[in-house]
Amino acid sequence: LKMSWLWLYLPLHLLMATCLCHSIKAPTSSSQQSFKSNLFNFYHSLLLADGKETTIHLLKDIPKRYYFVLEEGRALAPFSITVTPCDVPIEWSILVYKPPPGKAAPGDHDTQEVSKSHKASSMVSTLFNYKGNSVETYMGMSSHSALYLLEFLSTERDTHITVYLTTDTTSGHLYPELPGDPRIDVIGIGHTTVTLAWKHSPSVLQHSEGIQYCLLVNEKHNYKSLCAAETAIRSSGMKLPPTVALSLSPYLLEPQQVMILSNSELSIINRVSSGEVRQVCMGTKNTYTVPNLSPSTQYYFDVFIVNLLTNASAAYTGTFARTLEEPEPKVTELKDGKVIHVVLDGKKQKFYSLQYQARHKKIHFTFQLCRGQIRVHITRNGKTVASENLSGLRYFSLKGKLLDTYSVQLRSTEEANSSVKVLASPHFHKPLFPLLPESLKIKSFSKLRTCRSVTIAWLGTQEESKYCVYRKRIEEDQIWRELQSADRCSGPESRHKSEKVLCKYFYDLNLQRAVTTETIKGLEAGTLYLFDVYLFGPSGIPVRYHSKVVKTRKKC
């Protein structure tokens, strides 16, 4: 059976059968053997779809081959092939098989075989070779019928790639277009922010619907494609749905993911072992300020232009930037017996530092949390002696040496404003703050509740103190705001006079009996009331109990 170039245009199953039959006969020369080897690659290849992105999985050191045919009847048929590695660098090449121009002239059989083998071997040529992990596109033109073979190989580990072949280069592009200058410019750097800008994609200017920019931020390195970024996130131990943040399709967030939707921007923060990986889609805006970064940290930024209808994307040239170092916080000197009120803006100023030089061996720090959430960190001569989250009124009694230097750092743990009162004093037996009961909760008695009155109770102490009760009528939609925004350090001076119910003194040396009750009368039926109790110590500084909301009975 003699070799014929017509085989290249037979269906694949016929090619396979013919290959098996032909392989029975031993090759007559080394060039003929090489030619058979090349054809054998065809017979073990898959047809590559035209006009469709194909995902190909590669096993380490095992080549995978695909073929496609450019048919006759098309003068100067154009085609393009785009290969996107989704992980490690790969090797890939394009081979072309062209039929000889005509049959060999009759003559001696041996001479005819050698001539034919040499001619056939010369019809196999390599068009393109590439090794790396960048997205590469080969554009070609063929003026005659030809059969093309694509060979892919991964030598590092198992991986996957995407391949897009098209022979229709006039009806549009699967991938969004990049501008002539695809670089990302860093136009502003702050302590916790980086501002980026990039040139518009022609696809956005031509077809704004279904096209948008998406940004990926991480602390490791830049990614040359969207699928490479997704692969890296998955390899960190996370189950990430493909293009989840970019397609904006409904899905269930993993425990390591946080989704933030604000100002028509979708942000997804993935908690991985190497830090945070953020995905932000911002529509067709070509500038963006990345918020909530850590000071003095290097970040890598990648912008992708994404077709939401096809999930196809193109990557701008990534960039990186290092945020500015955290400025040294202003240090305020603490003085004996003087209360300092510290207000922290969670968005702008998260830290506040205080310093105190001891003039006695025993030192007492008092913290009264007024609003928000604050963590306190106390050091003595540079060594940590206390660190915890504040709650209510907190005392720290520390023992050291004369002239020891204490540093107190306060940090807001939320974006809302936080505030705290701080006192340092060597005289614990004369505290400015009152002695507190075991609990600052106010209790109401449902069975004693009527249409016109409510009975409440609260704990006292062994020290005779003054207690003042205030009430305020509120609506259902005000409950959450009133309870969350309450300043626990504010005293009755911030209340309207009409809200005051009464003031009383009481104490009991037996803490089991240090409980008082009060029935507040003159209320309206079926109405919500907010009740507050203020405790005053010897110095007159108040401590506010936790507010209590009670509704009077509607019918009696």
From TrEMBL:
Pfam families: NDNF, NDNF_C, NDNF_N. Residues 176-313, 434-542 form the Fibronectin type-III domain. The keyword Signal applies. The keyword Disulfide bond does not apply. It comes from the Eukaryota. Residues 1-21 form the signal peptide. It is found in: Secreted. GO terms for cellular component: extracellular region. One of its GO terms (molecular function) is heparin binding. This is Protein NDNF. It comes from Quiscalus mexicanus. The gene is Ndnf_1.
